[in-house]
Write a structure and sequence with these properties.
Layout: E1 4-5, H1 16-26, H2 38-58, E2 65-68, H3 71-85, E3 92-96, H4 101-112, E4 116-120, H5 130-136, E5 141-145, H6 159-168, E6 172-176, E7 195-199, E8 210-214, H7 240-254, H8 257-278, E9 282-284, E10 295-300, H9 305-314, E11 317-318, H10 334-338, H11 343-346, E12 349-353, H12 360-379, H13 382-385
Parallel strand pairs: 1-11, 3-4, 3-5, 5-6, 6-7
Antiparallel strand pairs: 2-8, 7-8, 9-10, 10-12
Length: 386
């Protein structure tokens, strides 16, 4: 069996159309876009076109899109920027217990600086309560930041409803949409979003490029000083080729979301059903319906997650036990603990994330291989024996 890649939530392959769009900016069109000669103007055209493509994908105005080096950078900029820009109103921020660490660690840093942060709990499916959110917002609340779609368990939050509630209460609303782009329609106007973070390598653009949407009228401090790039807010010569690649990638990722989702959901549901049917004592994590079309997250009892991943890798199957950013940690996933899993079951979690290039044949191969590995590992487990 050929190698199978089912870790698309961690990163995706740069596809041929995206690479083709990038290549001229890696060789012939090499001018610095901040200069004024023809070489520079050619490079600037590429950036302008990509900004328009990103804006169109989320229904933003072109002037509201700022390029960054990653989704993590965009999260940091949005949260720290909004917190400090609105400090006269108050120092209260609301987020959830299941955010990506780019959000959680930024909020924890702000707590050390004297800000107050409320971490909303979630139910067993990973959903927040709109009632709990409404009760948590106070006069001094300046920012609410809620992940659009969870990177580990795939649960999709009711972003439009959250945005409407937050706006009615006079706070700013930021969402980490890194996993959501291309997987669900995003309309920053209809969803009442003030700031939105995204990352190119999650939808077939290269690593090292992202973007932050900042609604017109929302003022946050500059991220990097030292130049006029990104309208003075993020100094430094632009990564032109990667920006161009992200523009092409987001255009492709959002041109037929319904069609792509229909195929992915078919693969996802077949994978979930196959795992549940062939491996007893297995639990699906995340919302059963309101979840990313390519996300499968299961806890296989009496199995240690690292052993499972290593055995899958030996069979040529790439998967994850949580987010790639924390896969080196021995601690169980904070997301799985937040939805109520005990440590021993959280340690046996497996995330399989499907992408455009996966097939039903691969799904069947993964089901059979996973059942074989699980049976072998459980045969050596005294916990399973008992």
């Amino acid at each position: 069996m050929d190698r199978i890649y089912m870790d698309n939530a961690a990163t995706t392959r740069v596809t041929e159309p995206v690479l083709e769009a990038m290549l001229p900016y890696l060789s012939r069109t090499y001018g610095n876009p901040s200069s004024i000669h023809s070489f520079a103007r050619e490079a600037r055209k590429g950036i302008d076109a990509a900004r328009a493509q990103v804006a169109a994908a989320i229904n933003a105005d072109i002037s509201e899109v700022y390029f960054t080096g990653s989704g993590t950078e965009a999260d940091n900029w949005a949260i720290r920027g909004a917190a400090h820009a609105n400090i006269k109103k108050g120092k209260h921020i609301i987020t959830t217990q299941v955010e990506h660490h780019a959000v959680l660690h930024t909020c924890q840093r702000l707590e050390k600086e004297g800000f107050n942060v409320t971490y909303l709990p979630v139910d067993e499916t990973g959903m927040i309560s709109l009632e709990a959110l409404g009760a948590a917002i106070i006069d001094k609340t300046t920012l609410v930041t809620v992940i659009a779609a969870n990177n580990e368990i795939g649960t999709i939050q009711p972003i439009a409803e959250i945005g409407a509630l937050v706006r009615a209460r006079g706070a700013l609303f930021h969402t980490d949409a890194v996993q959501a782009i291309g997987a669900m329609p995003i309309d920053v106007k209809a969803m009442h979003i003030d700031m939105l973070s995204l990352s190119g390598h999650k939808f077939h653009a290269p690593k090292g490029v992202g973007a932050l949407y900042i609604k017109k009228g929302v003022v946050i401090p500059n991220l990097i000083e030292g130049g006029a790039q990104e309208r003075g807010k993020r100094a430094g010569t632009e990564n032109v080729a990667s920006i161009v690649g992200m523009g092409k990638a987001i255009e492709l990722a959002t041109e037929d979301i319904a069609g792509r989702n229909a195929r992915l959901i078919g693969l996802r549901d077949a994978l979930i059903a196959g795992i549940m049917d062939s491996i007893p004592e297995t639990k699906l994590n995340g919302h059963p319906a309101q979840r990313l079309p390519g996300n499968v997250n299961v806890s296989i009892k009496y199995i240690e997650g690292e052993a499972l991943l290593l055995n899958l890798d030996l069979k040529g199957i790439a998967a994850s036990s949580g987010s790639a950013c924390t896969s080196g940690s021995l601690d169980p996933s904070h997301v799985l603990l937040a939805i109520g899993l005990p440590h021993e079951i959280a340690h046996g979690s497996l995330r399989l994330s499907l992408g455009d290039e996966n097939t039903m044949e691969e799904v069947r191969g993964v089901i059979a291989t996973l059942a074989e590995i699980t049976g072998r590992l459980r045969a050596m487990s005294p916990l399973y024996e008992n």
